[in-house]
Amino acid sequence: xxxxxxxxxxxxxxxxxxxxxxxxxxxxxxxxxxxxxxxxxxxxxxxxxxxxxxxxxxxxxxxxxxxxxxxxxxxxxxxxxxxxxxxxxxxxxxxxxxxxxxxxxxxxxxxxxxxxxxxxxxxxxxxxxxxxxxxxxxxxxxxxxxxxxxxxxxxxxxxxxxxxxxxxxxxxxxxxxxxxxxxxxxxxxxxxxxxxxxxxxxxxxxxxxxxxxxxxxxxxxxxxxxxxxxxxxxxxxxxxxxx
Length: 243
Description:
Helix content: 25-40%
Order of helices and strands: HHHHHHEEEEEEEEEEE
Strand order of the largest sheet: 1-3-5-7-11-9
Shape: flat
Radius of gyration: 22 Å
Largest sheet: 6 strands, parallel
Low-confidence stretches: 1-5, 116-125
Mean pLDDT: 76
Oligomer: single chain
Number of strands: 11
């Protein structure tokens, strides 16, 4: 838990990025800047790189952040060198034999890991007993089934993809806990038991939330157990369901 608390809060970092970019664009439009940055500095390429750095710095799973950095970096380098993506790729293609080396090493390392875990829980990829979860989906989907009997929260990230967190078989730990959600051009689905005490604190920007929970006839929230679902939704959605 202490390791999780020491990680930067992505909402604060995102807020600073929006403030800085917005202030620069406002001053630029009002001709109040004594200088102007190159066009490629304020662009969707640098946005992808900044978002990738944010994910690498705040998430346990670094793969999605690295992917965004690479994609943004390729297009940014092409802009800086004033070449087309095709020309840049043709230069990079000189090193295509390295692809075989990378694939070979990946297969060898994967096979080595499979041998170590072939007698362990074969569904570990999709199931977890951890009390705190960090689930990301970048350009794809990621489903997680939680079985923790002392669940203390999670971080969910969905960028051009979808995250599905199923907590039906989990038990909430006593106290106040949080699920932090960041959605960009994607979606997140959270399924909870219908007797959990849940509060929503989502900031939607061209997005929204949909609470589809059903409750027992004599539903009385337990104040000693509280789960806060908070975060930011940009051009996407969050679905909250119960069973």
